[in-house]
Write a structure and sequence with these properties.
Blueprint (H helix, E strand, L loop, with lengths): L6 H19 L14 H16 L8 E5 L3 H13 L3 E5 L2 H10 L4 E5 L7 H11 L4 E6 L6 H10 L3 E4 L4 H12 L1
Parallel strand pairs: 1-2, 1-3, 3-4, 4-5
Helix pairs in contact: 1-2, 4-5
């Protein structure tokens, strides 16, 4: 005698199969679409798991860092330093672009400027932290703007480390190691 499985049971079975395949293949990009009759709570649970799957890494994968800064020269300098140190680097020119990149392929760490067009860095950090509370973030700023200290305080309350521009690469390296350990 077969017992009819509920939509949630079916979803849980699909998730288990997906988990198995995910660990066999490594990074997973998309969960197959769930049936429309699945309850919202079950769909939310699968979305939460998908976020975890996207962050899965193989032991030898380089640590992925997302740089969010509107200054091209600063991004280039950071990218070159981080790549020479063995990190995989993605770049965004503003907070809006950075959030989109992060949600497409979450990074292990985010380095974000505060003052930027489109979306301020602190807004981007808040949006990332809302979905990924354990995201590791370093917030940087050259200051000079009213409210930068308030943004630094807010960033620290969100669990981010803060660095004032200009800072040395050794200082950045220590901040990265502190967050990763």
């Amino acid at each position: 005698m077969f017992k009819k499985r509920s939509a949630q049971d079916q979803l849980e079975e699909r998730i288990k199969q997906f988990e198995k395949k995910a660990f066999e293949r490594g990074l997973v990009e998309h969960l197959p679409p769930a049936e429309e009759n699945i309850r919202p709570a079950a769909a939310a649970k699968s979305a939460d798991r998908l976020k975890i799957f996207k962050r899965m890494r193989r032991p030898n994968d380089p640590i992925r860092v997302l740089i969010i800064d509107d200054e091209v020269q600063f991004r280039t300098m950071l990218r070159e330093f981080l790549q020479s140190s063995g990190y995989e680097v993605a770049e965004a020119a503003n907070g809006d672009e950075g959030v989109k990149l992060f949600f497409e392929k979450p990074a292990d760490m985010v380095i974000s400027d505060i003052i930027m067009p489109e979306k301020e860095g602190i807004e981007a950090v808040m949006e990332i932290k809302q979905q990924f509370p354990n995201a590791k973030v370093i917030v940087v700023s050259g200051g000079g703007w009213y409210g930068t200290d308030l943004d630094f305080d807010m960033a620290e309350k969100l669990g981010a480390l803060t660095l004032k521009k200009p800072f040395g690469l050794q200082e950045l390296s220590h901040a990265i190691q502190k967050l990763l350990n």
